[in-house]
Specification:
Elements: H1 18-31, H2 35-49, H3 54-71, H4 74-91, H5 94-110, H6 114-130, H7 134-150, H8 154-170, H9 174-190, H10 194-210, H11 214-230, H12 234-250, H13 254-271, H14 274-290, H15 294-310, H16 314-331, H17 334-354, H18 357-362, H19 371-387, H20 399-477, H21 483-510, H22 515-518, H23 520-529, E1 537-543, H24 551-572, E2 576-583, E3 587-594, H25 610-621, E4 625-630, E5 636-643
Parallel strand pairs: 1-2
Antiparallel strand pairs: 2-3, 3-5, 4-5
Helix pairs in contact: 1-2, 2-3, 2-4, 3-4, 4-5, 4-6, 5-6, 6-7, 6-8, 7-8, 8-9, 8-10, 9-10, 10-11, 10-12, 11-12, 12-13, 13-14, 14-15, 14-16, 15-16, 16-17, 17-20, 19-20, 20-21, 23-24, 24-25
GO molecular function: phosphorelay sensor kinase activity; protein dimerization activity
Keywords: Kinase, Membrane, Signal, TPR repeat, Transferase, Transmembrane, Transmembrane helix, Two-component regulatory system
Protein name: Tetratricopeptide repeat protein
Length: about 650
């Protein structure tokens, strides 16, 4: 598993040796007379030690807590709760982390401490990230970022940028992760904050590593490693070694990968981080799996799974059961593989149910798989089972020996039959699980489209209408003697009127009003009528749609054609578009042909857009096929076939 280190704002590291900073703080503590000053200094020393010496750091924060509670120092308590939330995350104690983060936020809001309010939101963002609730994580990190930008808190801004990068990376959005990480890194270098620099460099190393750019990833690791050693950043060092280990493992240099993972394990055990130790155990297991030492791999993975369960680290628990299922399958133990996969499936569904529909839609690419090959494999296994039979003996010579041989043969065939049945059942379970996840993704997307369309129409659309009415009344009451003023007023009204129309068009495209009442043929005609015919002439021909289709099929087929038309409008630079939609007893076919610029269908980057991925997901769900016939300068023909 990837190891990503959260960026805690509460650890400012400067360019001087950290021991000098601690010595300076201890001198301030010796001279301090006010209890509030002592509490603040103990807190700052604890921060400096948090990434080097967790035991001493805990002693310092305990002193700060004792003084703050005694004198009822609210600001001090709020800061301490923020510190303890991050400390709990390091230890993998996520329930405690949420409690401390909420206490920090409550105290800071009550006492009007906006900088600490931002810390509370940031801590909650880390909690939701660690527990797999990505939409909630982004929501809290954005709240923290907004406050910090308002207060011009440069260090806080860079911290929030780095934390957002972590969430986007875990949510399978490498482009956004890279963008936020680069912004966080630039700001971290500007303020010379080594903690933020190391975390952003390691996030970039993960992005490049997952993209197969291992040399670039190792360059990021090398830069981060130098900073960690310069500032005695032991926790950051753990992360750097882990990323290097993952790179070498991906490059099939398993001995190097194992060497660095064992170094990581020593550091994680020093800090007592259950979550981090769990990740390291699983990473070591993965290396042994690649080396085909499955027994050792299974031992390491079970240790990692146990720690994930103890710390309620759901993502780790899910990954652990998934890996155990794969290890058992490679060992030929299909019974245990099936049992482990069922636990993996159960946790996967739990995580989906815990997240919002928006989160599910964001995670849709995580569940896209090539199911056709699995179906072929499943059919082959079932065919093999059907062909198995017990061969009858053709002779009666040596009856006792013959009976013994028959018994052994029957036992072997029964064993092999059961083994194949278990393997086929495991693959069937996996296919069923993927169908459930795909349907959840598509249903969530349709729900989100309806919600956004309603919000646009009822919210933004109504506001624009009110603005238009108010402006009209205002211009009627105010005399505008100058020609320039009258021209400006007329232009303003025209812009508002155009905005109202644009909002209405977008909301109708998101969720056509007549889709559930008129059927796909009528609704496509309505959609096409809204397109500027001077720019793109569209001819629609439909046959066989007298009766309505099943609701899900109709909705998804409409979305496929709508997305294809939108791609023509945005990319093809076409002047003519022809759509032929037919339905017969066996299947529904759609042919969409344009005279645009076309593209090279042999280049994979032509199929990487979110729109095309959405089309492929729907086609796969409908058990249909889609074919692109195009070449540069020769237009494009898209052929869709789905069962009727």
């Amino acid at each position: 598993m990837r190891k990503l280190l959260l960026i805690a704002l509460c650890i400012p590291v400067i360019a001087f040796a950290q021991n000098k900073k601690i010595d300076s703080l201890k001198q301030v503590l010796a001279d301090a007379k006010a209890d509030t000053t002592k509490a603040n200094v103990y807190y700052k020393i604890a921060l400096e030690l948090q990434r080097m010496d967790p035991a001493q750091s805990q002693k310092m924060i305990d002193q700060a807590m004792a003084i703050s509670q005694k004198i009822k120092y609210q600001k001090g308590l709020a800061n301490i709760y923020s510190f303890m939330a991050i400390q709990s995350s390091f230890k993998g104690e996520f329930d405690a982390m949420k409690v401390y983060a909420e206490k920090c936020l409550q105290l800071a809001k009550k006492n009007n401490l906006p900088l600490i309010v931002a810390k509370g939101y940031s801590s909650l963002g880390v909690y939701y990230w660690q527990t797999g609730s990505y939409s909630e994580a982004i929501k809290n990190h954005l709240a923290a970022l907004a406050l910090r930008e308002k207060l011009k808190d440069t260090t806080g801004i860079s911290s929030s940028l780095g934390n957002l990068a972590l969430v986007y990376f875990d949510n399978r959005n490498p482009k956004e992760a890279e963008r936020y990480a680069l912004m966080g890194l630039a700001l971290g270098k500007k303020i010379n904050n080594s903690t933020i620099m190391v975390s952003c460099l390691q996030l970039l190393a993960n992005v490049y590593g997952e993209g197969g750019k291992f040399e670039k990833a190792l360059q990021m690791d090398a830069e981060a490693l130098a900073i960690c050693k310069q500032h005695n950043d032991t926790r950051g060092l753990s992360q750097v070694y882990s990323n290097m280990a993952n790179c070498y493992t991906a490059m099939k240099q398993y001995d190097k990968g194992l060497k660095y993972q064992l170094e990581v394990l020593k550091l994680d055990q020093f800090f007592g981080d259950k979550k981090q130790v769990s990740d390291t155990y699983m990473n070591i297991s993965a290396i042994y799996t690649e080396k085909k030492d499955y027994k050792t791999a299974l031992d390491w993975m079970k240790k990692g799974l146990q720690l994930s369960q103890e710390s309620k680290y759901k993502q780790g628990e899910k990954s652990g059961w998934g890996s155990i299922s794969q290890i058992y399958e490679r060992m030929g133990d299909y019974k245990n593989a099936l049992a482990a996969h069922q636990k993996y499936q159960s946790i996967s569904l739990d995580l989906i149910n815990e997240n919002s529909n928006k989160q599910i839609a964001l995670m849709q690419t995580k569940f896209e798989t090539v199911k056709k090959e699995q179906k072929i494999s499943l059919l082959n296994k079932e065919n093999t089972i059907q062909k198995l039979s017990i061969t009858k003996q053709k002779t009666t010579i040596a009856i006792i020996v013959g009976l013994l041989l028959v018994s052994l043969l029957v036992a072997g065939l029964i064993y092999n039959r059961n083994k194949l049945k278990q393997k086929a059942l495991l693959q069937a379970q996996m296919l069923k699980h993927q169908d459930i996840l795909t349907k959840a993704v598509i249903d969530a997307e349709e729900h989100e489209r309806k919600r956004i369309a309603a919000d646009l129409h009822d919210g933004v659309g109504q506001l624009f209408s009110a603005v238009k009415m108010n402006l009209s009344g205002l211009f009627d009451r105010i005399a505008l003697p100058r020609e320039e003023d009258r021209f400006l007023a007329e232009n303003t009204m025209a812009l508002v009127d155009e905005s109202c129309k644009e909002v209405r068009v977008i909301s109708h495209q998101m969720m056509p009003n007549m889709l559930l009442r008129s059927g796909i043929a009528s609704d496509l005609k309505s959609f096409i009528e809204k397109i500027d015919s001077d720019s793109l002439k569209i001819r629609l021909e439909t046959t066989g749609f007298k009766d309505r289709l099943e609701s899900n099929v109709e909705t998804m087929l409409y979305r496929i054609i709508q997305e294809t038309i939108n791609n023509v409008i945005k990319h093809a630079r076409a002047t003519q578009l022809e759509i032929i939609l037919k339905r017969d007893a066996g299947e529904i076919s759609a042919v969409i042909k344009d005279n645009g610029v076309g593209f090279d269908t042999d280049k994979p980057d032509g199929f990487e857009g979110i729109g095309l991925k959405n089309i492929l997901t729907r086609i796969e769900y409908l058990r249909g096929t889609i074919k692109y016939n195009s070449a540069p300068g020769k237009g494009t023909i898209v052929t869709v076939n789905v069962p009727a």
